[in-house]
Structures are given as C-alpha cells and as structure tokens.
C-alpha cells in the first residue's frame, strides 16, 4: 500500500478553487437506443454559486471594513473636527484595503492567498520512505494522501485514495473497440451522470469529478517541417483527435455525509469502502448502458492514473524508483507549479457560456479548452450538491509544458480559446498547488 503520514485535520479542509462553481445545467443525453421523441432543452447559462463568506459580489469582510470606516468618520464628527480628520485618514486606508485591487484581485483575497502560500511552504515535509515514485509528487502536494486496496466478495481487487477523512474511487471510461475508429465524440461521456451519481440508494457522495487528460498530435515541440507534423497536421486540424486521451470519473465519499449507509455495511473503513464500491459499480453499469466501457481501478492502477494526471516525467519516475531518491521533485511559485522538468499552470472556470440545444455543447467546450498546443492538458469538472439543494459544477483547466516560455505560449492560446467560447477563466496565481490538486482525480476541489 502506498502511504503517507496523515497530518491534516478536517477543520483545515478548504476549497482552493477561489470559491464555488456555477450552478449546473442538466444536459439531456439520448438513451442508448435512440428511440422516442424528446423535447429539446433550451439554452441555459450556468449561474455562479456564491463564494464562501460572500454576499453576491461583495464579501462580508469587505462590508465590515466599509462599515468600520464609516463608523470612525461619524464618531470623529460627533467628538471634534480634528479627530474627524484623523479618523477620515484611517477610514480611507480601510476603504483601500476593502475595495482596492491588485492585478484585478481584491486586496483581501490577495493577502489571503499570499499568507496561504507561505503556510504551505512552511509546512513542507519529506516524502516518507516506501511511497511509489509515480505517487511521490502527489504526496509532496498533500502528505496526508494514501492509497488502499480492498478485496470484495468475488476476490476483485479495488483501489482507493484518501487522507483518512475522505475516500475516492476511480472509474476509467473508454470508448468501445470498433473495426473503424468512430467519429470524434460520437459517444461522449454523459456528464449529467455526475449529478445522478451523487446519491446512490442510501449512499450520499460528497462529489463526483470528471477528469480528462489529453496530449495533442502532432507533439507541439516538433518543428513544422517534421514528417509527423506535415503528415498528421492536416488530419488533426480537421478532426481535432488528440494523440492520447484518458478519462476518469472520481467518486468521493465523506463517511460523515451518510453514516447510516456506512454503518449498514459494517462500519469503519471497511463500511466506507463497501459503500463507495457500491456507488462506483452503479456508475459503471450506467455508463455501460450508454455504450461506454468503464471499470473500477485497482490500487496500482489508481497510482498510475494519478501519475499520469500529475504529468510527472517518466524518466524521473524511473530514476527515483531505481535510486530511491528522497530529493523533492515539486515546487510551487506564484504563477506556476513545477514537477521534475515540467511547468504547470492551473485555471478556474469563473463563468460559462450558454450551454444546451442551439448553443455550445458542453463536450465541445471541454474539447476546446483542453485541445491547445500544450505538452498536455487536464480538464476537471466537479459536481456536488451545492447550496440550497442547487446542483453545482466547478471547472478547472491545467496546462503542462516543457519550459516557462512554452507554458506562456500555451496560456495565451488557452485564454484566447476561452474568450472565443465566451468562457471566463481565472489563473490561480499563488494558488497553483491547490489548483493542481483540483485537477487530479481525487474527487474535486480540496
């Protein structure tokens, strides 16, 4: 079992996504057989969910600072004019702190992210011995993560990942093998299944996350005159088919959300594992009904999937495993996250375009945002219960490149693609490590 020291408490679990996501549209997918008339859904624009601690666009702490500034001025006027002048100076400073922005980020948010980044750097600990080299970069990001193996009644091995407060199972989704390659996205993953997977019988999941890893073709580092670029470029421009594409759905269980279900299946870790496996098997069955091949991953496959999603260098993985190296392989900076010799940049999807019939299909938007010329890209879409029983989606995009310059070019292309689709992206400056965790198949924002 790959393991890591568990050091984080439940009270420290926060949402690194700079707030909530939009309320989800309910995309309608045709049944496997086609048959029957269905009324086409009207286009919808997902509604942003209020961020924690906020009232719409104005945060509670900003309101408090404004109220304190006004109170100081009123108190000064009531006492003496000279005191009012002094209080007015203090009030101006408070208003700047409440309403000022630095690079389009509110100053309170900017200071909060700076402090959080300093705390993360101060809390760095070495990776414990025995952790697999492909899993080590993930453990460096969150030392409390570990993997588990469970054997069901049929002696089927199933893998899980968690930190002691949650448990996540991974379902890998693939298109079925056919004699001829099917048309691109002829069988997309029906994303509305994410919301239906949140409640399986008496099992209430915390979240369900769709993660898609893509590598472009031809490879972006090839010169334009390369044979592969010349021969494959026109085909790729017409079809948009990536060289590599892997899709997972991560189901995240918080045992405290359904204690009765866990207790009914034996309680403790075993009860949580059996509950999550039941939910994962139900999702596999539903995906199979849509003509997709899906299966729950074993522990070694969970480790491999996380290694692929984190875009670690295979050469570095082999070297670290062979030499048993303890050198730290990851580093977070204000605008990027590095792993081995690769640079990453994460974005939060702040706003969505119109989705549905007669508008942008969600599958097309996913392909557009993850189809750039970066070395690799990861798109994550997390469904949760939201607030006030409103279903919600939170989206993240991460780019991976071989150098800082290549990453900057990929960022510019991604932002242009997002503007063309009328999707709003926010680069997670000073939150690149939380953004990375949000794009790994761990169950969503952490």
Automatic annotation (TrEMBL):
Positions of transmembrane segments: 68-99
Keyword flag Nucleotide-binding: no
Domain of life: Bacteria
Extent of Basic residues compositional bias: 1-12
Region feature (Disordered): 1-51
Skewed-composition ranges (Pro residues): 24-33
Type VII secretion system protein EccE domain segment(s): 242-349
InterPro entries in the cross-refs: EccE_dom (IPR050051), T7SS_EccE (IPR021368)
CC per GO annotation: plasma membrane
Keyword annotations: Cell membrane, Membrane, Transmembrane, Transmembrane helix
Chief location of this protein within or outside the cell: membrane
Protein's cellular compartments: Cell membrane
Similarity comment text for this entry: Belongs to the EccE family.
Name of the protein in its database record: Type VII secretion protein EccE
Gene giving rise to this polypeptide: eccE
């Amino acid at each position: 079992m790959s393991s890591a020291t568990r050091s984080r408490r439940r009270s420290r679990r926060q949402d690194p996504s700079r707030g909530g996501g939009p309320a989800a549209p309910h995309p309608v997918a045709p049944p496997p057989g086609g048959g029957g008339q269905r009324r086409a859904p009207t286009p919808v624009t997902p509604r942003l969910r209020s961020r924690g601690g906020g009232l719409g666009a104005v945060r509670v702490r900003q309101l408090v600072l404004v109220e304190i500034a006004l109170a100081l001025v009123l108190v000064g006027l009531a006492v003496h004019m000279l005191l009012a002048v002094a209080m007015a100076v203090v009030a101006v400073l408070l208003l700047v702190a409440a309403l000022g922005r630095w690079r389009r980020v509110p100053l309170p948010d900017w200071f909060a992210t700076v402090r959080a980044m300093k705390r993360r750097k101060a809390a760095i600990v070495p990776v414990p011995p025995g952790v697999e080299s492909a899993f080590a970069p993930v453990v460096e990001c969150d030392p409390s993560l570990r993997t588990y193996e469970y054997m069901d009644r049929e002696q089927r091995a199933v893998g899980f990942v968690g930190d002691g407060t949650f448990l996540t199972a991974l379902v890998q989704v693939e298109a079925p093998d056919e004699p001829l390659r099917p048309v691109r996205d002829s069988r997309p993953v029906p994303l509305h299944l994410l919301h239906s997977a949140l409640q399986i019988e008496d099992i209430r999941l915390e979240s369900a996350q769709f993660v898609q890893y893509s590598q472009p073709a031809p490879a972006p580092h090839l010169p334009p005159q390369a044979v592969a670029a010349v021969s494959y470029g026109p085909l790729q421009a017409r079809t948009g088919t990536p060289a590599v594409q892997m899709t997972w759905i991560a189901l995240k269980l918080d045992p405290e959300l359904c204690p009765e279900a866990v207790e009914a299946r034996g309680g403790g870790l075993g009860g949580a594992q059996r509950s999550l496996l039941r939910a994962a098997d139900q999702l596999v069955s539903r995906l199979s009904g849509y003509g997709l091949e899906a299966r729950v991953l074993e522990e070694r496959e969970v480790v491999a999937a996380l290694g692929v999603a984190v875009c670690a260098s295979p050469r570095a993985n082999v070297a670290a495993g062979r030499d048993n190296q303890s050198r730290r392989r990851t580093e977070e900076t204000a605008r990027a996250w590095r792993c081995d010799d690769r640079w990453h940049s994460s974005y939060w999807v702040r706003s969505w375009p119109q989705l549905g019939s007669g508008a942008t299909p969600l599958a097309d938007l996913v392909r557009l945002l993850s189809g750039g010329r970066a070395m690799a890209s990861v798109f994550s879409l997390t469904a949760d219960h939201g607030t006030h029983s409103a279903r919600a989606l939170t989206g993240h995009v991460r780019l991976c490149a071989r150098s800082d310059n290549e990453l900057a070019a990929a960022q510019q292309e991604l932002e242009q693609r997002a503007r063309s689709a009328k999707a709003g992206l926010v680069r997670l400056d000073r939150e690149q490590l939380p953004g990375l965790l949000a794009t790994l198949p761990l169950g969503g924002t952490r």
